[in-house]
Design goal:
The chain is an all-alpha fold. The chain has one domain: Up-down Bundle (Growth Hormone, Chain: A). It contains eight helices and no strands. Helix 1 packs antiparallel against helix 4 and helix 2 runs antiparallel to helix 8. The longest helix is centred in the last third of the chain and has 33 residues. The relative contact order is 0.18.
């Protein structure tokens, strides 16, 4: 009789080299994204006194996720996830480097920062669902709950570290350097994903099209009552908190300049 397999623990996913590499790349990329968020808003507050334009930074970040998350999930089920991740990470790197370059010229406007931020939000919206789904291909199913938990931990680590690092770079250098560092973080993630030799999954059923994939996702939500509560709580929290996230930078700018 063969001995029973050891029970997986919270750290078991790290024993899989590919998951470990992608997890570290995810932390670095997420840190860069939070640095970008801080630097982008800071830059806008120095370019305009308009509370509307400052608040629109939150819109430029979040609106792409609202518009593209469902289509991105459907696309991720239809095409090679590795290729899609390479495309999104490469796209976001180009946008981040472009924003940094424009910032260094000293001629960038608040509307241009909003445009670059929206493009980065588009890349993140297309990348997010696929990135989350990749965990199912990196570890065995018994280990998957721990891998998903660790992905959430990586986001919280980045949320704690990123803004502080972004603030330090802004204080000692400039927002342009933050944008460049963010671009480098995307390049690092791109290289890790590029080295992933993904195995093609055999398909046993008929090929699904984009519309069919969207409908399948909506049907899943429709017939999963447990999802309703999660969606409702997420919406309620985000709806209330988004106003604070959008206007807090403007208030900080007022304090900085001692204006009402």
């Amino acid at each position: 009789m063969s001995p029973a397999a050891p029970k997986p623990t919270f750290l078991t996913p790290f024993t899989y080299a590919l998951f470990r590499a992608i997890w570290i790349a995810s932390v670095v990329s997420n840190v860069g994204t939070w640095m970008q968020n801080v630097a982008g808003v800071w830059l806008v507050t120095t370019l305009t006194t308009s509370a509307l334009l400052v608040a629109l930074m939150q819109t430029a970040t979040s609106l792409p996720a609202f518009l593209l998350s469902m289509p991105a999930g459907a696309i991720g089920d239809l095409i090679d996830r590795r290729k899609l991740l390479l495309a999104t990470q490469g796209f976001m790197a180009v946008v981040a480097f472009g924003l940094g370059a424009f910032t260094f010229t000293g001629h960038i406007t608040a509307l241009e920062v909003l445009g670059f931020t929206f493009l980065l939000g588009m890349g993140a919206a297309l990348n997010g669902p696929v990135w989350q789904a990749v965990a199912t291909e990196l570890v065995p199913r018994p280990v998957l709950p721990f891998a998903i938990t660790l992905n959430g931990v990586s986001n919280n680590i980045a949320r704690a570290i990123g803004p502080a690092l972004g603030g330090l770079i802004i204080a000692y250098y400039s927002p342009g350097w933050v944008f460049m560092v963010n671009g480098i973080s995307f390049i690092g993630t791109w290289l890790v994903v590029y080295r992933w030799q993904r195995q093609e999954e055999p398909s046993n059923g008929p090929a699904e099209n984009f519309t069919g994939a969207l409908r399948a996702g909506l049907r899943y939500v429709q017939y999963s009552p447990a999802i309703y509560g999660v969606l409702a709580r997420t919406f309620a929290f985000s709806f209330g908190a988004s106003a604070m996230w959008a206007l807090a930078p403007k208030e900080k700018a007022n304090v900085r300049t001692n204006t009402p």
